[in-house]
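Late entry, written up from scratch paper. The run itself happened at the end of the previous shift, but nothing got recorded in the book at the time, so transcribing now.
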Amino acid sequence: GIRIENLVYAKKTKKNFYFENLTLAPIEKDLINFSKLTQKEKNYLFKYHMEVYSKISPYLDKQEKKWLASQI
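Output as recorded:
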């Protein structure tokens, strides 16, 4: 298997903590066996890739944005 790690920061709200991703790079989906994932895990990956796109795309040119969108 391959180990995938992201740097995260624990942020505090009034009632609890949550994690904010500091590493914003797409995860290579060709290396994931989606049949082994739960729907919750699949949703997490989709939301993560949407976050990567929304935060990184303003700094990319048209061709780079197109590639990054293809990773969602």
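The chain has one domain: 8-70.
(Scratch paper discarded after transcription.)
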